[in-house]
Design a protein that fits this description.
Layout lengths: L3 E2 H6 L10 H4 E6 L6 E4 L4 H17 L3 E5 L8 H14 L4 E5 L8 H11 L5 E2 L9 H5 L2 H9 L21
Parallel strand pairs: 4-5, 5-6
Antiparallel strand pairs: 1-3, 2-3
Helix pairs in contact: 3-4, 5-7
Length: 173
């Protein structure tokens, strides 16, 4: 999920390896739009990057190799948070696939999705450009225009990896 736990921010939990606290960096006024359990991270504060570094260091220690980051690509597009997390992953020295997806996509036009994808494509391995599919055909068909524009913009290709790592699966990049 996007950012930092709202609970950690309210409790002003310590950020591992620093003298800072979650309350120093949690932007309560910028919650994930569809789940209020996380808020954006203030990346203008040095502790913002330190927070992501500590989290991804822990993931690397656990042997995690796939990260799906929700609520950062859509109406809640957050290039700074995407880049900060990509940087934190790189700093671990452990290969991890970094996949992002929207929290919501009310913006709706595929042109906006293409623009967002082009802005961050060198920082992620995969991205999903549409919201979840639910149980109606109109929900599924609404994704076709976005998929068409992304294909025309050469953003949907088999095993394209703009970060330069080898992938053994089809990826939407």
């Amino acid at each position: 999920m996007r950012g930092i736990s709202t609970t950690a921010v309210k409790a002003s939990a310590s950020i591992l390896g620093t003298s800072y606290h979650a309350g120093d960096i949690g932007l309560i006024s910028q919650p994930c739009p569809w789940w209020k359990g996380t808020v954006a991270v203030n990346l203008s504060h040095s502790a913002g990057q330190m927070y992501y570094d500590s989290i991804y260091s822990q993931y690397a220690e656990w042997g995690v190799d796939f990260i799906k980051n929700d609520c950062v690509f859509g109406d809640d597009f957050s290039p700074a948070e995407i880049v900060a997390q990509a940087k934190a992953i790189e700093r671990t020295g452990r290969p991890m696939i970094y996949s992002i997806s929207p929290g919501s996509t009310k913006k709706g036009t595929s042109g906006e999705q293409v623009s967002m994808a082009n802005e961050i494509k060198t920082h992620v391995n995969m991205y999903r450009v549409t919201a979840d599919d639910w149980d109606s055909w109109s929900n599924v068909t609404s994704h076709f225009a976005v998929a068409n524009e992304c294909a025309q913009a050469e953003l949907i290709e088999e095993c394209v990896d703009h970060k330069g790592t080898q992938s053994s699966f089809s990826c939407s990049r």
